[in-house]
Amino acid sequence: MSRLLCVAAFAAALQPPPRAPEPPRIEKTANYKAAAEASARLAGELKAPPASRKTVAVVGGGLSGLACGKYLSDAGHEATVHEARDVLGGKWKAHRMSFAMRERPGEFTSFEFPEGVPAPLNMAAAILTNTEMLSLVDKIRMVPGLLPMLLEGQSFIDEQDELSVLQFMEKYGMPDTINEEIFIAMGKALDFIDPDKLSMTVVLTAMNRFINEADGSQTAFLDGNQPERVCAPMADRIRDAGATWKRTRPSRRSA
Ligand SMILES: Cc1cc2nc3c(=O)[nH]c(=O)nc-3n(C[C@H](O)[C@H](O)[C@H](O)COP(=O)(O)OP(=O)(O)OC[C@H]3O[C@@H](n4cnc5c(N)ncnc54)[C@H](O)[C@@H]3O)c2cc1C
Q1: For residue range 210-230, what is the model confidence (pLDDT) as tens digits?
Q2: Which atom of ligand 1 is nearest to the CA of 60?
Q3: Which Gene3D superfamilies match (predicted)?
Q4: Starting at the edge strand that comes first in sequence, how are the strands of the sheet with 219-221 ordered?
C-alpha cells in the first residue's frame, strides 16, 4: 500500500502545476484573437505535410523562444526549446526592480534580489548592493521606515493607510532622493497618482508582495510618461532633421 502511495505521489510530482484561471474576457482581446488566428492558420492551411516536418532546436526559453516553440508545434514540426537557466521566461524571470535614473537619462539602475535568500533579507541585500541610486547615508535613513514593514509585515502596512507616501516619508525621515527617484515612479505606476495623494499602504503592499514573490516577474519603473520621454524626443528629432509631422484626419484608403 505504501509503495502504491509513493508511486502516486511521484506521478503527481511529475504533473505540470494546474493552470491559473484565465481572465474571463481574455478571448475578446485583440492580442488573443490575433494569436489564436495565427495558431489556427499554422495548424490548418499552413500545417506541414508529414513528409516535410522538421526537427527544430530553438535556443533560449524567453518569450520569443517559447512563442517560436509553440508556433512551430502548431505547424506540425517537432520543436525543442533549449534554455540555459533552470527557469523559463528570460528577461522577465529575474527577481529585480529597475528604475530609470533622472540624472542619467537612458540608464537604469537595478535592485537585485539574490536567489535563495528569503524575504525580508533579500530586500536588505538588494538595497545594500545598489550603489548607483542610493548613497550609504540614504540607505541608513531608509531603515526606520522599512524595518517595521520587514519585521511586522502586512499588519504594519495596513496601519499606514492614513498616511500618504509623502507623509510617511516625512514621519520616518526618509531622504528626498527616495521620493524623487523611487516613490514618484511607483506611485504613477501603481495608481497613476503622485506621492502626496497615494496611500503608503499601496506602495508597501506592492513592495511586500514583490519581495516575497521570488518567482514573479521583473519590475521596471520609468521616470516619466511615454509621450514626454519617448514620443517627444522622436518628434523633435524628426523636426530637427527638417521633416514635419502634423495631426491630420484619417487618410482615406485608396482603392
Ligand atoms: C521589466 C520589464 C518590463 C517589460 N515590459 C514590456 C512590455 O510592457 N511590453 C513589451 O513588449 N515588452 C516588455 N518588456 C520587454 C520584453 O520582456 C522582452 O523584449 C522580452 O522578454 C525578450 O524576450 P526574448 O525571448 O527575446 O529574450 P530573453 O528574455 O532575453 O530570453 C532569452 C533566453 O535565452 C536564454 N539563452 C541565451 N543564450 C542561450 C544559450 N546559448 N543556450 C540556451 N539558452 C540561452 C537566456 O537564458 C534567456 O532565457 C519588458 C522587459 C522588462 C525587463
Answers
A1: 888 887 778 888 776 677 777
A2: 34
A3: FAD/NAD(P)-binding domain
A4: 108-112, 96-100, 219-221
pLDDT (tens digit per residue) in 155-208: 999 999 999 999 999 999 988 888 888 888 888 787 778 888 899 999 899 888
Q: Ligand 1 pocket, 177 CB below 6 A?
A: no
Find the DSSP H helices in 18-105.
30-43, 63-74
Ligand 1 centroid to residue 226 C-alpha, Å: 21
CA–CA separation, 162 vs 158, rounded Å? 9
Is there an atom of ligand 1 within 6 Å of 83 CB? Answer: yes
Q: Is the CB of 80 inside a 6 Å radius of any atom of ligand 1?
A: no
Give the whole-angstrom CA distance, residue 53 versus residue 47: 9
CA distance 119 to 133: 21
Which atom of ligand 1 lies nearest, measured to the CA of 220?
A: 1
Output the pTM of the full model.
Answer: 0.68
**How do residues 24-68 score in pLDDT, each as one tens digit?**
888 899 989 999 999 999 999 999 999 999 999 999 999 999 999
Ligand 1 center to 64 CA (angstroms): 7
Ligand 1 mean position, distance from CA 210 (Å): 20
With contact defined as beta carbons under 8 Å apart, do 110 and 96 qualify?
yes
Alpha-carbon distance 166 to 198, whole Å?
A: 8
